[in-house]
Amino acid sequence: MQSRSDVEAILAYHEATKHSVESVRRGGHMLDFTNMPRPWKLYNVPLPEVPLPQQLGRTGVSVGDALLGDSSPVVGDAGLTLSDLASVLQLSAGVTKRLRAGNGYMYFRAAACTGALYHIELYIVSGPLSDLPAGVYQYGANDNTLRRVRDGDFRTVAMQAAGLDSAPAAIVVYTSTFWRNSWKYGSRTYRHAFWDCGTVLAHSLAAARANGVKADLVTIYADAPVNDLIDVDGEIEASVALLPLGEGPDVPSVDTPARLDIPVVLLSRNPIDYPLIRDAHEATTLDSPAPVGSVSREGGEGSAPGGDLVPLGEGAPLTRTLEDVILQRGSSRRFAREPIQLSALAAMLDAAGCPVGPDGADAAEVFNDLYVIANAVEGVEQGIYRYQPSVRALEPVVVSETRALSEHLDLDQPLGGDAAADLYFIADMPAVLDRWGARGYRTAHLDASTRAGRVYLAAYALGLGATGLTFYDDEVVEALGAAQGSAVTFLIAVGVPWRNRRTTE
Ligand SMILES: Cc1cc2nc3c(=O)[nH]c(=O)nc-3n(C[C@H](O)[C@H](O)[C@H](O)COP(=O)(O)O)c2cc1C
User: Fold this and answer.
1) Nearest CA to 77 among 214, 272, 227, 205?
2) pLDDT of residue 495
3) Are the C-beta atoms of residues 149 and 99 closer than 8 Å to each other?
4) How confident is the model at residue 311 (pLDDT cuts 50, 70, 90)?
5) CATH number at residue 186
6) What pLDDT does 77 receive?
7) Is 327 in the pocket of ligand 1 (CB under 6 A)?
8) How far is the CA of 343 from the centre of ligand 1 (A)?
9) Is residue 149 domain-shared with residue 254, that is, in the same domain?
10) Centroid of ligand 1 to alpha carbon of 41 (angstroms)
């Protein structure tokens, strides 16, 4: 059960891991490449394997159809198959390209991830599918293979942990292996666990929908039974989200099984412990799926928009197929200082709105507000705007020159200043924590990152570029004029990628 002290603990974590000009100047730690964690989870004993098709199935569904509209799947749900599952896994966490690095290769995965360190693992708790026996499986992205961790139908364990009434065909469990990211980012990795899980989740949700499979994000569940079920310790590696897929047959009732302690290959010679990560995770851990807190949210996106609103108009169509977009995507390393159309921004903001929020929350249960720094959007004066989804319009906060400010706010990286627009997700954290307890910290970050993951896909579908960025926490909140105590939960910059610039030089 979470308490006031858990809320204080997660707020203390957030405070301690803020970036400021001062903290960045003080510097982080040096990267020790001799102690760099491996990018995959490898078991030290052979487990039964189910290789997935090397050739990705093509649904041909457009990004627009996979992202927009109501939450029903694009095609009828004909029952989850191994091929659907393979598509969801490959498009979420599969290897999509490799680049030479030193004597070996650097492998890039389907979804964007801080530092390309890929600390998010996927497991499947499956009932019997037509072509997959019931079991608990780990997805090995290194060889695109499922490994069976447990034999049998254990969906009921995950369902009880999440308080689900109806049986899904399978449940995907997302974990973070913190050291694989904290090697570079130290204690701030606890935020990255949710940022990087959200970009993966956005792909999973879109791929599920494109394959005609119902999928809903679950962030509120009892942690221990889920961790035990997939055989992770909840400390080095811990579950961070669940995604029930499809509808399945009735579930047999089983007890939560004990850990198996299957030996795994060490991540690196000397993993470093970050107590702040452990403390933050403990504070946000639940022993039951019941949400806590009862204070309802005031203000936020529900508040009446003011000022001269800029209506978005119709969003540009997102016609490229989901598979093409994901297989060809890559974060922009440089933007050309060129404008984007308002209809393109409209399409990206539409994509940022999920039809169903985390844990079945409806649109009124808003975890994050969305602010736009418009550096170069045709028909929109340079300035800071708050997005008002209820009227699909931008509400001006400050109309002024923004390039220098937006370059500064993202840790003085040119990307934010060169982008056509910077989209900031902002959670009114005191209100979220009042409503949801310390677990709300996770949910708010997952809500933002999943929505940002959808913005990435929309940007690529439009032939534009996008990248996640990190930021000076307090300076952003102040510049945007957000409520005291608000937290920045994701920053994504979008614009014309340098290689595609229209001008020739
Ligand atoms: C939440 C998040 C924050 C990121 N922050 C930065 C950043 O501050 N600077 C940067 O150059 N890239 C940033 N990136 C981009 C990653 O470095 C990039 O996703 C990773 O190298 C994988 O490459 P890919 O996205 O092209 O597949 C960020 C990505 C994410 C998801």
Assistant:
1) 214
2) 98
3) no
4) very high
5) 3.40.109.10
6) 56
7) no
8) 25
9) yes
10) 21
Residue 179: give the domain boundaries. 32-283
Looking at the CA of residue 333, tell me the nearest atom of ligand 1: 11
The two counts, helices (H) then strands (E), for the chain are: 16, 16
Q: Quick one: 134 and 222 in the same domain? A: yes
For residue 419, give the DSSP letter.
Answer: S
Continuous H helices in 391-428: 403-409, 414-418
- Pair (314, 200) in one structural domain: no
3-class secondary-structure state, position 99: strand
Residue 212 belongs to some domain of the structure: yes
pLDDT of residue 282 exceeding 60: yes
Q: Which of 236, 252, 283 is the last residue of a domain?
A: 283
Cα(106) to ligand 1 centroid in Å equals 15
Our count of domains for the chain comes to 2
Q: Where is average pLDDT lowest: 112-121, 374-383, 389-398, 493-502?
A: 493-502
Q: Which of 180, 422, 467 to mutate to test the pocket of ligand 1 (most atoms within 8 A of CB)?
A: 467
Same domain as 136, residue 216: yes
Q: Does residue 83's CB lie within 6 angstroms of at least one atom of ligand 1? A: no
Quote the ligand 1 centre to 327 CA distance (angstroms): 17
276 with 333, same domain? no
pTM of the predicted protein model: 0.95
- At residue 366, the pLDDT reads 80
- Model pLDDT, residue 106: 92
User: Among 10-14, 48-52, 361-365, 397-401, which is the least confidently predicted range?
Assistant: 361-365
Residue 259 tokens, joined: 């850990």
| Residue from 41, 45, 440, 416 nearest 232 by CA | 41
